[in-house]
From TrEMBL:
<feature type="domain" description="PknH-like extracellular">
    <location>
        <begin position="45"/>
        <end position="244"/>
    </location>
</feature>
<dbReference type="Pfam" id="PF14032">
    <property type="entry name" value="PknH_C"/>
</dbReference>
<dbReference type="InterPro" id="IPR026954">
    <property type="entry name" value="PknH-like_Extracell"/>
</dbReference>
<dbReference type="InterPro" id="IPR038232">
    <property type="entry name" value="PknH-like_Extracell_sf"/>
</dbReference>
<protein>
    <recommendedName>
        <fullName>PknH-like extracellular domain-containing protein</fullName>
    </recommendedName>
</protein>
Length: 249
């Protein structure tokens, strides 16, 4: 199995769940959370917060394109096929392993959400796919609360492996090990090592979320080619999105 086939297999989890189914004036930051003024819910164009194909390609270091338009709406637009340990074990570590899952975000007061996939499989590039999403909460304070909870959760998951059943062959299992969890002001990042129980090649996925105003942005980048070294691509893209939130887009 090629590396691109491996990432397609691994990332079919996100595709399957779809089928089955952010700092406007931070005054201080401590361990990933900061104090800021709460305001009313801002009417944001979340599609404009998402990165462009050019921004994604620049962060990835190779061309990636969007095959579908952004998915925008309420919390119901977030992928919802994974709900418990039967689908991903341990479920409490799904957040650092897989981006913008509904079960991860629904514990907060979510108002709106948007996400989009970018990919280029089979071209021999280093990064074969990127997922980028943004979730808007009812207030700055609620977004800050959720980001702080994610910091605690991701740290607790470091070194743990999330196991998820794959569609085929029978008994196939995706394994996502959470490593290298870091907090840098309004961004939280990790490297997820993807493998399976079929002996296929493993590859890293860069993960990052970020806090700005009433939004949390959520990004992953699958590094399946080249020397497959994490290089803060997801963090760079998350910061691009945070800047859009900060500037009112």
């Amino acid at each position: 199995m090629t590396r691109d086939q491996a990432v397609v297999r691994g990332r079919s989890i996100v595709g399957a769940v779809v089928g089955i189914a952010v700092l406007a004036g931070c005054t201080s930051t401590v361990d990933g959370s900061g104090a800021r003024q709460d305001q009313g819910v801002v009417l944001r164009d979340l599609a404009e917060v998402l990165p462009t194909g050019a921004e994604v390609s620049r962060a990835a270091g190779n061309p990636l394109s969007d095959s579908e338009p952004p998915t925008v709406g309420g919390i119901d637009v977030l992928p919802n096929g994974i709900r418990d340990n039967a689908a991903a074990d341990p479920i409490e570590c799904l957040g650092p392993a897989t981006p913008f899952m509904r079960v991860v975000y629904e514990v907060g007061d979510v108002r709106r959400a948007a996400w989009q996939e970018f990919s280029n499989f089979g071209g021999g590039q280093t990064v074969s796919s990127v997922d980028a999403g943004v979730v808007q909460f009812a207030s700055n304070a609620e977004a800050q609360r959720m980001f702080g909870a994610f910091v605690t959760q991701w740290k607790a998951c470091e070194g743990k492996t999330v196991r998820s059943a794959l569609p085929d062959p029978p008994g196939a299992e995706m394994r996502q090990k959470v490593t290298n969890v870091k907090v840098d002001g309004p961004t939280l990042s990790a490297t997820v090592i993807n493998s399976d129980n079929q002996g296929d090649a493993s590859f890293p996925t860069e993960r990052a979320i970020g806090l700005a105003a009433d939004c949390v942005v959520d990004v992953d980048a699958a590094v399946t080619g080249g020397q497959r070294r994490p290089a803060e691509r997801a963090v760079s893209l998350a910061r691009t999105m945070l800047d859009k939130v900060d500037h009112g887009r």
